């Protein structure tokens, strides 16, 4: 995770995401950089528009959060309808009992 955070920090600071900058940033916070991970990170981000990637991630995450709220609302509605049906049945039972 530190490597991804480092890339985001460098992007935020408008610095190029290259092996040297990643290593310097990691060492500045007391971490020792793994050359393989650094090379992999830099290679995987080459040609990627990070701003677009962040926007797409936000768009994907937003409906997921909203979906949970919708399910809660749906459950509340189901419980309310069940209560109404029970009350209606109780009222009908009073007519015949």
Counting DSSP E segments of at least 2 residues, the number of strands comes to 0
Specify Rg, calculated over alpha carbons.
Answer: 27 Å
- Percentage of β-strand residues: under 5%
CATH topology: Arc Repressor Mutant, subunit A
Q: Which ranges are low-confidence, i.e. pLDDT below 50, for 5 or more consecutive residues? A: none
Helix content: over 70%
According to CATH, what is the class?
Answer: Mainly Alpha
Average of per-residue pLDDT values: 82
Number of domains: 1
The dominant shape is: rod-shaped
Q: What is the architecture at the second tier of CATH?
A: Orthogonal Bundle
Short description:
This protein is mainly alpha-helical and 97 residues long.
Please tell me about this protein's structure.
This protein is an all-alpha fold. It has one domain: Arc Repressor Mutant, subunit A. The chain is built from four helices and no strands. Helix 1 crosses helix 2. It is rod-shaped. The model has no long low-confidence stretch (mean pLDDT 82).
């Amino acid at each position: 995770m530190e490597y991804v955070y480092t890339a985001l920090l460098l992007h935020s600071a408008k610095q190029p995401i290259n092996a040297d900058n990643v290593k310097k940033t990691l060492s500045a916070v007391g971490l020792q950089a793994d050359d393989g991970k650094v090379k992999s990170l830099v290679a995987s981000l080459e040609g990627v528009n990070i701003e677009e990637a962040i926007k797409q991630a936000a768009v994907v995450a937003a409906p997921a959060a909203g979906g949970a709220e919708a399910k809660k609302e749906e459950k509340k509605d189901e419980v309310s309808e069940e209560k109404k049906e029970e009350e209606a049945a109780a009222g009908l039972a009073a007519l015949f009992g």
